[in-house]
Hints:
Number of helices: 36
Number of strands: 37
Distance between the termini: 79 Å
Shape: globular
Radius of gyration: 33 Å
Strand content: 15-25%
Mean pLDDT: 80
Helix content: 40-55%
Strand order of the largest sheet: 1-6-7-8-9-10-11
Amino acid sequence: MRSTDVSEGGLETLIVAAMTGRTAPTADTPAGVAEELAPFAGPNDYIEGHRDDFDRVHALDLVQLVAFLRATQPDLVGPLSLDADGPERRAFLSRVRDEITNRGVIDVLRSGVRHGPHAVSLYFPLPSPGNPQAAIRFVQNRFSVTRQLGYSLDTARRALDLALFVNGLPIATFELKNTLTGQNASHAEVQYKADRDPKELIFRPTRCAVHFAMDDREVRMCSALAGQKSWFLPFNKGWNDGAGNPPNAAGIRTDYLWREVLAKRSLADIIENFAGIVEERDARGRITARKPIFPRYHQLDVVRALCADATANGAGRRYLIQHSAGSGKSNSIAWTVHKLVGLEVGGVSVFDTVIVVTDRQVLDKNLKDTIGGFAQTARLMGHAERSGDLRGFIESGKKIVVTTVQKFPFILDDIGSVHRGRRFAIVIDEAHSSQGGRAAGALNTALGGAEIDDDATTEDRILAVIEGRRMLDNASYLAFTATPKNKTLELFGQRYEQDGEVKHRPFHLYSMKQAIDEGFILDVLAHYTPVSSWYRLAKTVEDDPDVDVSRTLKTLRHYVEGHDHAVATKAGIIVDHFLDQVIARKKVGGEARAMVATDGIERAIDYWRAINAALTTRGSPYKAIVSFSGTVDKAGEQRSEAWFNGFPSSELEDKFDADPYRFLVVADKYLTGFDQPKLFAMYVDKTLAGVKAVQALSRLNRARPGKSEPIVLDFRNDPTMIEAAFSDFYRATILSGETDPNKLHDLKRVLDDAGVYAPDDIETLVSLFLAAAPRDRIDPVLDACSENYVALTEEEQIAFKGAAKAFVRTYAFLGAILPYAVPEWEKLSTFLSLLIPKLPSPKSGDEPLDVLETIDMDSYRVEIEAAMELALSDADAEIEPVPAGSAGGRLEAEMDQLSSVVREFNERFGTADFRDQDRVTRFLFEELPEKIHANGRVQNALRNSDTQNARIEHDRALDDELLGSLADHTDLYALYNTDRAFKAWLQDRLFTAAKGASPLSREAAPPADQV
């Protein structure tokens, strides 16, 4: 009696049996039966092909191709002499072979070939519902699987374990391994790279859509074989938000590949809507490369999940897709858009129009080209630049409208008014923010003056647009991001209850953890090196004026780090490190690039000059490029990045990809939305935190053959803060609660009680404003209220204005998502939006001293510390909901003599003679307050709880931070836990600093010998 076949051949037999619909052989199966070919058993089953039917000269399964043509186009059998090997048939087969070489197998299947006077169809697509003729034609397609395919013309007669064909055209190949016999997918990958000659016809680019290296636990895929340079990507479901596949109670872990992904209708969907060839172009539009693409599992899964939900529920839904940076979101978005356009229920489109919103750079460089790459959708696409474009595109039959965040408000206006009867899908790519202040200014104008910071991300801008207009019930929103903020989760996330609390989570997740585990992106924190600075300042004036401690310390730090000597020193370190540790070691095959992140345009220009000077001193042939948005004033002239670089901005990315340019020096531009796989090292002299830290450092995570272990040298940031920023997005990001709308009632009561306005003022002004009354009828009401405001005390003014801004900001967000309307809130929000610009700001009695005129730098030293690996917590991260805000209060400036501030500055950063003392001082007076300030729960408690509860949350966070620093500050931790006076002092001072968001003054510290 035979036992279970656990060999590689047994796995092969199992796969073929499942695909062809026949029963796999068992111990009771008579010998020889397993070798019989499976018949064409049913509409969902593959045919089992025979290895002898493969024409190696043309790389086609001749039997299956002829059988398909005979059944579907019998009038071609005679003219093409398909029944006999002769000149006519060989000419036709050569034509098919050459068309596959030139156009790719996917396009040949989709469009067929022209041969002489004949138009030959080589595939029939999936039928639309209610189309019986198309259904009959689709069933006539011949999907076949062949074992041990001999593909080579040489005498070795090498064979592939499995190959799939569609109507005789090769679509996929397999190398199988079996963990039970000591081999795995890695061995299969090596076999493709070492033993499968890419010059063989079946392995040449574009001839097969995909090649799978797999075992019973893992699947890897490659869309273009290139010998040892072949790049295999994971094709796994993921397990516990990491790599691999979940256990399968019904079979083998990897059987989803042949039972689901490669099932006939699924593979047909991939052929028609996913796989293909992407053309890469240079700045002049010339084609530089043609690369086959095939969807990874998470991309295929998210597109199908979105389409299934939209089919079941129609328009009016919201979806948040959290996919890691570098996970191929542009392709996922393009495939989603393409599929949504053709989505129908009962012959009626689910969406009449699909709108894609992104920023200008990505629109021009990625999405437009990717979406337009589908020939069947390119003609249906338009680019909305102004109000009214949407209507024109709809009337002209455009189904896809691509627009920028700057034009998005006009599109929303059209959807909500003129096109109320139509259904829309709004696809948002908000993870990029390559625009600078100009983009924010354009959006401010579109929003009628809404407040948006110059460094706001595209996510911030899009949320601002949506907040200003209630979520539309005739539109579905699909937001793609790697780093969802609390607003994003509450607007687009899936609502659910856990332990009596309402939370929000992503609709679909491809986590940073899984992407790193699978090797699809690189871990940018695995080789993170902090660089410490020490310096000493000298006071150069005789008098000793009082100065604002907080402002002065920040000014001094900025001055020192931007001093010509400091920049030159750091630039020398950067150049030496890159040439010696990166270039000399042939990182990325000798093609490595570096990015230098600085804290402003002026600093970026200084670094650019210093790096180029250092390269010249070293005799290096390489050069640096500087990049920034807008222009900078130099010698009375406005100069752009193009002026400094000597070439147009449109050529910057192509220039950086080629020698002699190896350094890209930036302020904000290119810190997000920039995809350059050769980027290997990042040198950071810029404060990074939260989402921006993740987005900036993630520029390094793009994987490519020959690239591993990217490097970060950080001159500015605390490693624990960087680690905390990444931890929020390592696995799923979950919103821990919801914004409390009752806070608006509380704010309204504070505002009503201030006596700045009367209820009649609100009614009068809102009525006039909505009736488009002349300006001279509105201003008298506002001016009268402004005079009432001026009559308040300074503290009352600050409280009122803070509460007014908090009300407008919170209502803008809640008004977009609340299922009910409160007319009083809407009226008050409109009233306050007009009143706030009229309210003067309280003036400080003293003008700030120009500190930089009173000090000079004595010395500066930089020391590179040991490289470290920042390990992230392997758990879902919860972030706090959007705070509803509260009435404002004035923060009193802490004043001290300039000499004391300089002394404190030098004590923190100056001498390295007392290194331990300096570390403790810096930890107490700078690092620890920053960590407490960055704690989301502390901030939420300070905003929304009473003082007692806020203090409890604060002291708990302080305990946690000190415990976490035990290894570095053992003596300090011991003192904190044994000396009650010191513990009380530290808790009091840090809590006071947290409430005022001001630095801790060292003057109030216990004696130095205690610390």
